[in-house]
Amino acid sequence: MLFRSKTRSAGRAPAPPAAARSRTAQQRPSLLQCATVLTLASLCSAFPAQAQDQIDLKFTHRFSSKHYAWTHGGGVFTQAVESASAGRVKFETYPAAQLGKDYFSLLRSGLADIAVFIPAYESDKLPMSTVVELPNMYSNICQGARTLASMVSDSGSIGRSEYSRHGLHVLFVTLMPPYTFMTSKQPTTSLETMAGLKIRGSGAAMTKTVQALDAVPVQISASEVYEALSRGTVDGAVYPYNALTPYALEDQLKYSVDGVSLGGTAVVYAISSKKWNALPAEVKTIMNQAAQATQASMCQWLDEENVRIRQQIVRDSGHIVTQLPAEDLARLTQAMQQVRASWAQVMDAAHHDGSALLEEYQQLFAASQP
Length: 370
Prior knowledge:
By secondary structure, the chain is of the alpha/beta class. It is 43% helix and 15% strand. The protein has helices at 24-27, 31-41, 68-84, 103-109, 141-152, 157-163, 203-212, 222-231, 273-278, 281-316, 326-349, 354-367; strands at 6-7, 55-60, 89-94, 114-117, 168-175, 180-183, 198-200, 216-218, 236-239, 255-258, 266-272, 320-323. Helix 2 runs parallel beside helix 3, helix 3 (68-84) packs antiparallel against helix 10 (281-316) and helix 11 (326-349) packs across helix 12. The radius of gyration is 21 Å and the shape is globular.
C-alpha cells in the first residue's frame, strides 16, 4: 500500500472510459513526496505516541483513491502526519464521496473531520474563493497557490469572510494548471473560429470566459465530457492538459491553443474548525508543517505533469497545438479583463467587494514570487 490511511470500501459509481487504464505516473511517489514524508518523520521523536491520547480523524473527498488530488495531495499529507506523529494521529479515508457530497454538513455534523472543497462547485457558499478561477490570474501554480493560501487562511480576507463562517480551517490548497481552449474536430486558428462552438466549462467564472469568446458554455461534469464529445453534443472544452488522460479525453480533444490562460480551478483541503481547535498544540504543529510541505510538492508536481502530458499527447496521440495571431491574443487579453471586471461587479452587488478582492489578489500574487 502506498499510504497507511485506512479506506472504507463502498459501492463505486460507474467508472469513466479511462478508469481501467494504468496511471503509473500519477500513482508513483515523487522525490518531492518522499522528501516531504522523510522531513516530517524527523519530528517523531519530539512527539512520542501515547495510546490514551490517540487521535482518529475521518477524511472524506470526492476523488478516487488513485486520483492525483489524493495521491499527490491528501494521501501525502495523511502519510506525513501519521509518520511525524509516530502513529498518534490516524486517518480513516472515505474516497469517491462515500459519505455523501455535502461536505459542509458532513464536517458540521462530525461525520467527517477533513474534506476537500472545490469552490467552482460550491460558488453559493464560497463565492469569493472563485477569484482564482478567473482568466489570466496565474501561470505558475505554486505562486497562485501561495496567494490563495494566504487569502483563505484564518487571518486572510476570504478565510475570515467565508471559511470561518462555515466552521472551516483551511489546511492547504492547490490549483489546477491554467486552462486552455481545446476542440475535437478542427483546430482553433483565430478568435473567429471559436465563435458558436459548444464548449464545456465548469463554474460561473468559466461560463463567463466561454461567453467572452463568443462560444456557447455547456455545464456538464467531467465524467460526462467523453460521451458528449463522442456524440457531438459539445465541440470542445476549456481544460488543462493534465486533466485529459484520467478520462481518456486525449482520444477526443485533438486540438488546443498555446499561450492562453482561461482560468483555473482551486482545490481546498480543510478541517472542521471545532476539530482543529480541539487538537493539541504539538499535533497542530505537525499538521501545519505537513500541509505546507504537501502544498509545495503538489504544485510543483502539477506544473511539471501538465508539461509532461502535453508532450506525451502531442507525441503519442497526434495532438496539435496552435497559436493565435498576435492581434487575436491582444483582443483575447482585453476580453479576459472584461470577464474579471464583470465578476467583480457581480461580487460587489452581492456585498462581497469583488473589486477590492481582485486588487488584493494581484498585490499578494506579486509579493509571492520566490
